[in-house]
Amino acid sequence: MSTSKGKDKKGVTGRLWFRVVALVGLVISISIGWLLSHEIPIGVLFATIIPIMGKKLPPSIFGHGRMNGTPKVPHDLMPRPRPEREMFLDLPGGFRMPQNGLGMCCRATAYDDILVYRTVLWYLLQGGRHIDGAHLYLNHQAIGKGIAEAVRRGVPRSEIFVTTKIFPTHFGFESSKGMIDTYLKQLGLDYIDLVLLHFPSIPLASSPCKKGGSDETECRRETWTGLSEMRENGYVRNIGVSNFSVRHLMELEGIGAPIANNQIAFNPFVPDEIMETISYCKTKNITVTAHSPLGGIADKDKAMLHRVLNGISSNHDKKVSQIMLRWAMQLGFAVIPGTGNPNHMVENLGIYGFELEKNEMDAIDGLKYNAEGFSSGQTTSFIGSL
């Protein structure tokens, strides 16, 4: 009798586990199908996971306007002066890029259209002028609405520097030109100041040029040629790359427009090998924008507690974040910290107002040689191997 009961119990348990596994498989299959139904599945994945990680309802599932975060912009708030002693990087064609920008990625509020609109409007009205976006972030239209409202309130479009990026799934000569038309419509602009190739490639991902038989290198070159044509026609003022290593940069030499910018992960804790790419960019007059200048999602909290950085912040009565941003700017980088908090925007724009001493710069430079426990730069290092 006991043997029979034991068999029955095992049978029930087995059926239960089968149902659980089947249900999990069904959920996974539905989720994959849902993601693949979108133009950029990986963008939707980020737009879903990042809010969940921040304990917020992802707009990709629940709709926009349900998330708390960036406050409403007062209807009577008008443009404030641009920061004193504002710094710029020179780009080909006589254009200039503000060294201090606003990143529109990788935080929960960057994926809610209502909060994105408010974020861009707050930033521009408080004197900021550099907005960094991308096709992958899925927020072009909200960024464009924020820009339009800022212009309506008196911020000149000619002062606003807008960056976006084309994802490798849309690489190709004709495809890249078509995407610029799409981005212009989404952003509501007549031209884009800077367009970057977002990554050299994405493993296993297809694109129009790959479907045409081109390999990864050929796809990058075809895309560069297409963007160069759009630059010649005035739809784009400058073009550049993002997360490119020296090898990838060399592939584009002598093809179309000059490389205006390389946007890479850079902060005090990146490995020394990243400096090879930076040195190459300097020799070729390619400006560098530091994304993840505060350490990124993985390292920001650790960076804010670092003894050396806290000591320097005490010397200047500034926050550690301001010290890190000022350090990168004094090295000649543009920085694009992301925030939806108007107070943090003011703090970030305030880094024009002080300067680090040489010994402080040297102390921060040396942190990369003692960065145990930090993961900064690993994304760029990985991409460089593709």
Oligomer: single chain
Structural class: alpha/beta
**Cα separation of the termini:** 63 Å
The number of E-state strands comes to: 10
| Uncertain segments | none
Indicate the overall shape: globular
Strand content: 5-15%
Q: From N to C, what is the helix and strand string?
A: HHHEEEHEHEHEHHEHEHEHHHEHHH
As a whole number of angstroms, the C-alpha radius of gyration is 23 Å
Mean model confidence by pLDDT: 91
Major beta sheet, strand line-up:
3-4-5-6-7-8-9-10
Helix content: 40-55%
What's the helix count?
A: 16
Strand count, sense and barrel status of the largest sheet are: 8 strands, parallel
Provide keyphrases for this structure:
alpha/beta, 47% helix, two-stranded antiparallel sheet, 8-stranded parallel beta sheet
Please provide a written account of the structure.
The protein has 386 residues and is α/β, with parallel strands linked by helices. It is 47% helix and 11% strand. The chain has helices spanning 2-36, 41-53, 59-62, 113-125, 140-152, 173-187, 208-211, 216-232, 246-251, 274-283, 296-304, 307-316, 320-330, 342-349, 358-365, 378-384; strands at residues 88-90, 96-98, 102-103, 130-132, 161-166, 192-197, 236-242, 261-265, 287-291, 334-335. Helix 10 (274-283) links the parallel strand 8 (261-265) and strand 9. Helix 5 (140-152) packs across helix 6 and helix 6 (173-187) crosses helix 8. The radius of gyration is 23 Å and the shape is globular. The termini are far apart.
What layout of secondary structure does this protein have?
Elements: H1 2-36, H2 41-53, H3 59-62, E1 88-90, E2 96-98, E3 102-103, H4 113-125, E4 130-132, H5 140-152, E5 161-166, H6 173-187, E6 192-197, H7 208-211, H8 216-232, E7 236-242, H9 246-251, E8 261-265, H10 274-283, E9 287-291, H11 296-304, H12 307-316, H13 320-330, E10 334-335, H14 342-349, H15 358-365, H16 378-384
Parallel strand pairs: 3-4, 4-5, 5-6, 6-7, 7-8, 8-9, 9-10
Antiparallel strand pairs: 1-2
Helix pairs in contact: 4-5, 5-6, 6-8, 12-13
